[in-house]
Specification:
Largest sheet: 6 strands, antiparallel
Strand content: 15-25%
Distance between the termini: 18 Å
Structural class: alpha+beta
Order of helices and strands: HEEEEEEEEEEHEEHHHHH
Radius of gyration: 22 Å
Length: 304
């Protein structure tokens, strides 16, 4: 599993570097043993109070349509269905992908797919223009064969993988900022010499490279060992570094970096958007703090 996860994380870093469109981060959750549908798929995870209200519990219809009962997930029944009502806010590519919802059900955590064509979709985007659609579910019926019970550990791991995937995208976009900035300062001539020959520019470039390296190192460490502490450190570092990475890159590009078709803008607007998704630095540093307070050996915790 470690090798597979590391490979996926490396691919996500490259996707972030290239600013490719598509729900790449969400595909990392495919490890849960669920057969993914053909075509693009995206994932909705619980964040705080569940965004989905499961109404009427689990309704099971047997041979006679007038016979129904409420039972736990896994009860046999050819026409069994889960009835779902609620709102799925800001789903990445939600209107054009099969949406996999992970949430708390009547009998514990579960996963089920949602077809956006059977919902009321409200289009939306993040700062980078990536689709973040809100889906309204009204008594949405899910076939029993599509309801997949999860353990609490699997649900928690899905959240960790989502955060690590987003951190990997940030790492790739940060590396792209470094590439574009070094290229620009090398080629741009000011006062008779390239910008990269000025001491102040060299110092800022070094800080940019340092921040990007910090993010990639934290992401690679979490890819080797998927633990709450490692993932929290990776996402916290990635989100915290966004401001400095974007500041330096834009400062060294000048106004050129803000133009509509600038390659740098494609990277930095994604950095600003991904910083807050799947938990920002405040969320994950608070988790790290609680882990440190509860640890018997803080050094062992930090040295994983």
């Amino acid at each position: 599993m470690t090798t597979t996860l590391a490979t996926r994380v490396a691919a996500l870093c490259e996707a972030g570097r290239l600013a490719g469109p598509g729900p790449f981060a969400e595909t990392v959750l495919g490890h849960l043993g669920v057969v993914l549908p053909e075509g693009p798929s995206t994932v909705v995870l619980p964040e705080g109070p569940p965004a989905v209200a499961l109404t009427d519990g689990l309704t099971l219809a047997y041979a006679h349509p007038a016979v129904t009962r409420v039972g736990p997930v896994g009860t046999s029944g050819r026409d069994a269905a889960l009835r779902v009502s609620g709102t799925l806010p800001r789903v990445p590519y939600g209107a054009t992908s099969t949406v996999l919802v992970l949430t708390e059900g009547p009998g514990g955590p579960l996963l089920f797919p949602v077809d956006p064509a059977r919902t009321t979709a409200v289009p939306g985007t993040n700062l980078a223009g990536e689709p973040r659609d809100t889906l309204q579910l009204h008594d949405y019926a899910v076939a029993a064969g599509d309801v997949h019970p999860l353990t609490p550990a699997e649900l928690a791991e899905a959240g960790l993988r989502a955060a690590l995937a987003r951190a990997a995208l940030i790492a790739g976009a940060a590396e792209r900022c470094v590439e574009l900035t070094v290229q620009h300062t090398t080629n741009r001539v000011q006062f008779g010499r390239p910008l990269s020959h000025f001491q102040a520019v060299k110092q800022e470039e070094a800080r940019l490279i340092e921040e990007s390296a910090l993010v990639r190192a934290a992401v690679d460490a979490a890819a080797r060992e998927l633990s709450p502490v490692a993932v929290a450190a990776a996402k916290a570092q990635a989100s915290a570094s966004v401001a400095e990475i974007a500041r330096i890159a834009h400062q060294l590009h000048g106004a050129i970096g803000f133009t509509e078709l600038s390659e740098l803008r494609f990277a930095t607007t994604r950095l600003w958007s991904w910083r807050d998704e799947d938990g920002d630095e405040s969320y994950w540093t608070a988790l790290l703090g609680r882990a440190a307070l509860a640890a018997d050996d803080v050094w062992a915790l930090l040295a994983v």
